[in-house]
Amino acid sequence: MRCATFNILVCLILFISCSVKGQDYIKVNIPTADDESAYIWTTLQDIPFFEKNNYQVNLPAGTLVADLKSKSKTGELSDDDYERLKIFIRDSIYNRSDYLKGYEKIGDEKALINTMINKIDRSNFNWDFKRFETYQINLTLYGPGGSYDPDEGSILIFTAPEGQFKNYDNPANTIIHEIVHMGVEESIIQKYKVPHPLKERIVDSFVFLNFSAILPEYRIQDMGEFRIDPYLKTKEDLKKLDKFVEQIMGENR
Ligand SMILES: [Zn+2]
C-alpha cells in the first residue's frame, strides 16, 4: 500500500515537473559521415552559383575536394567522384566529436528556443503561420551557412569543432530565424512571390518585434530593402502581414 502511494507521488511529481518544463519542439542531430558527404556533394554542385554570388563556402581541405571543385566549374562531376568523396570523408575527415560542442551549445539554449516557439501566437494572425510538431536541427561543418526546408520542418546549421556558429555566438538567433522562415514560407512568401531581400526583411522584422527583449544580439540584415518597415511598427501589426505584403507586391505590377 505504501508502495502504491509512493508510486503515485512519484508520477505526480514527474507530471508536474514535465508540464512546468513544457514541450520540447526541437531535436538536434549529429550527421553521419555519409550525411556530410551528401551535403558536401550538393554544395560542390552549386559551387558556380556560390562563387558568382560571393558566398563563403566551407569545404574539407585536400586535393580531392579542390579537384572536385574545379570539375564542378566545368560541369565534369561524375558518380565515381561521389563514391571517391564518400570514402575520403569516411576514412580521412569525419569525426563525430567535431560536432559535440555545437550540439551542447544548442542544447543549452533549448529552453529559450522552446519559449520563443511557444510565444508565437498563431491565433493572433489573419494568415497561417506554419508550425511543426518537432523541428529537426541538423548540424554540419560545411557549406555556405544555415538553410531551412519548409516542407520537412528541418534546419541545417553550420557549426565548427570549437562550437562556433556563423553570424551569432548564440545559435538561438539563427534557429528562430529559420523557424520563422518556415512559418511564413507558404502563406506569405510563396503566395505573393516575395523576392529574396524582402523575404529576409519580413523574417527579421518578425523576429525583432517578437523577441528583441530575449534576443538582445539579434540584428536585422541590411539588404537595401525597406518597403515593409512602415507597416511593421509593433508586434500587433504582424496580424495583417499578409495584407501589407499583398499591397507592396501589388504596387510592382
Ligand atoms: Zn534568412
- How many strands appear in the DSSP assignment? 4
Q: What's the overall geometry?
A: globular
Helix coverage percent of residues?
A: 40-55%
Number of contiguous helices: 10
* Percent of sequence in beta strands: 5-15%
How would you sum up the major sheet? 4 strands, mixed
The radius of gyration is 22 Å
Multimeric state = single chain
Strands across the major sheet, in which order? 1-2-4-3
- Secondary-structure content class: alpha/beta
Small-molecule binders here are: zinc ion
Label this structure with key terms.
binds zinc ion; single chain; 4-stranded mixed β-sheet; 10 helices; about 250 residues
How would you describe this structure to a colleague?
The structure is a single chain. The chain has 253 residues and is an alpha/beta fold. The chain has a domain at 31-94. 51% of the residues lie in helices and 7% in strands. The chain contains ten helices and four strands, in the order αβααααααβββααα. The protein has helices spanning 2-21, 33-45, 47-52, 63-73, 79-93, 100-108, 110-119, 172-190, 196-211, 241-251; strands at 26-29, 135-140, 147-149, 154-158. A four-stranded mixed beta sheet has the order 1-2-4-3, covered by helices on one side. A hairpin with a 4-residue loop joins β3 (147-149) and β4 (154-158). α7 runs parallel beside α8. The chain is globular and about 55 Å long. It starts with a helix and ends with a helix. The mean pLDDT is 92. Zinc ion (ZN) is lined by residues 177, 181, 200, 203.
